[in-house]
Structure formats: C-alpha cells, structure tokens
Amino acid sequence: MIFPPLGLTAYSVLPRVCSFGAIPVDCRSGLDQGDEVIDMSAGYVIWSVLALGALLLVALALRAERCRFAARGKASAWLQLRLTSLPIGLIAAAAVWLPARAIHGPEALAAFYLLMFSLGLLVYFGLHWLAGRMATPSLSAGESAAIGGSGLLMVILPALLASMASPWVHQLDLGAQHMQRGLAAESPLAYRIADRRRLLLPDIGEVLTEHWQAPPGVKVERIEWERGGQYLLATDSTGSILCRDGEDFHVFRLAADPAPRWRMYWRDAEGSPHRSDWTAGPAEATTQASLLTPMWTQDGFAFPVRIPRDLVIVERRWASGKVLQSGALDGQALPTPTDTCLPKPYRNRDVESVTTSVGIRMWLVGAQRIGIASFSRPAE
After folding, report:
1. Is pTM, for the whole model, over 0.90?
2. Domain residues for 199?
C-alpha cells in the first residue's frame, strides 16, 4: 500500500494553491516555470549583447594596463606575466579544490572557503610574484600583485554583474516572448484527438484521458489553461494534468472537474506562429468507464495510457527487507524536456530491488484532499 509522502497533505490547507485534477499548484503567480520548450531567442540575444559588452570592457582594461606598463618600458614583462596568469590561476584552483575534495561532510564547504581565502590567494599571488621576478625586465612585487589582482577582477566582476542582471534579463525575455505570442495568428487546432477514454481509479474516481496527436512539422512552444479568468502555463510537470511525449500530448484529468479551456501556441512546418483556443470535450456518454490497472512486468509495469510522471509514486522492496517509496524517476536521469510522461513501460533501474506497488496521486477538489490510487504487484 502506498501512502502520501510527508508534507503532501499540507496542501489541503494552503490558501494560495488551486488545482485542476492533479497536485495543487500556485495559481496566483503564473510564473513561467516547468518543462515547456519555448522560444528563448530574445534571452540569447540579450546575454550575447551583455557578453560582448563585457569582453569589450575587458579588452579596454587590458589595453589601458598595457599602456601603463609600456610607459615604464615593461610592456614585454607585462605580456609575459599576463599570459602566465591563466596557468597560475589553474594551479591556485587545484591547490584549493584537491584538499577540499578530500574532506567529507558539512565541513567540506567551510574547508573550501577557508582554503580559497588563505592557501588559494597565497599560491596565486606568490606565483605571480615569482613569475614577475623571472620576467624580462623584472617586475616589482607591487607590479606583479597589480597584474594578478586585475586578472581576478576581470573574472569576478563580470560574474557578479551577470548574477545581478539575471532577474532583469529574465523579465525582459518574458516580455519579449509575450510580445511574440501576441503576433501569433488565431487558427483552428492542428492536433487530432487520437484517443479519449474513461477510467476508474480506486480512492480517486473517474478520470478522463486524451491523446493529442501532432501532425507532421508542428512544433509546440507553449500550452496554457484558463484559471480564474486568466491563462496560466499548463505544462508545469509539478502539478499538471498534461504531459508531453515529443510533440504529442496526453491529458489525465478528473471527470468531476470542469472541462478545461486550453490555449496552444505552435508553429507550422514553415515556422509561422499560431494560437489555438478550445475547450476540452466531454467523454462519450456511451463509452463504458473501465478500471485502470497496470500490467506488471518482471522489472516494472505499464499503464494503458500515458500519465504525467510526477503524479506517480512507486514502492521498491529489497531482499534485506528495506522498503522505499519515492517518485517514479527519483534517482534516475530525467528524460528530455519534451518527455514529461511516465515511461511506458516503466522499468526499475535498481536490479537489486523489486517494484512492489505503484500509486497515482491526484488532488480531489471536492474532498479537499489528495486521493491515491494504489496498485500492488500480484503475489507470485
């Protein structure tokens, strides 16, 4: 039997969450987070411009520094030491990283910072002093330290400025994407509803599933659903009733919930942007609801429909008696961002354990709780 992980039931008392057949998600912020694939060209352009600007400033600083040493007749010595700064930096980094790597536990981070501001600086400026003395003409300790210090600043300052600029670039990028979406032509949905089913889950009730099949050449950039009068991102795998398999999509939602209003931004084979709005159709009244059951295999299981992977929890058991409940893909490499469905079939990657049960968790709005449909492996 699978029980909800610690902390899940707290969602039932949080006022800032809303849900649509899955785990509650924050519906006030509408933040663009998740596994969606969107056009990031605006962000790349902004970061490229900032990177070119940083390189230009570094080049100007190097030119000014060279001119200052050339006035003293030490331009060749400056060049020798400046070219030596890179291997010196690598040696100083190794002097910090190697000892810190040998320390384990919470003390490792403290040791890293202690070594960085003691041994690392000592090695870095000490080697600059030694290389400055060996240069022709030789450089004084102050001149070598100035060259070493300016090299550090040329690395640290751009990194700090990039960190400070990141939120602003993100907002500009989102604004540019919003403007691009506003140019999309309103078009009929190019997708075909290839499969629609009614399924029954214990402790959850009736679920409706859909398979949206993409025509050749279509590329989806974003999918939204209407919540509270506004369209919010629907492909956030942390609480979505929607999962993606390449350019195909699969819906797994409660039949008791209102039919969602969808909005899709996509591009055709020629790259032209489109926007399609539609409301999910009800299940066929004549279709008989069937009980959802997994097909068990030696190393896992398979459901007859695709399910968002973050709705699924699995239980593994070892010969020693150890039992572990976790997300379906915990401890495994996540698939590509265009694959957010539970793998079909699902295979347990730990050869020493056996998948003994699997559960599907969904937020039940009417009951204000998380329902968990559990399925146990039949006894052999």
Report:
1. no
2. 29-37+186-279
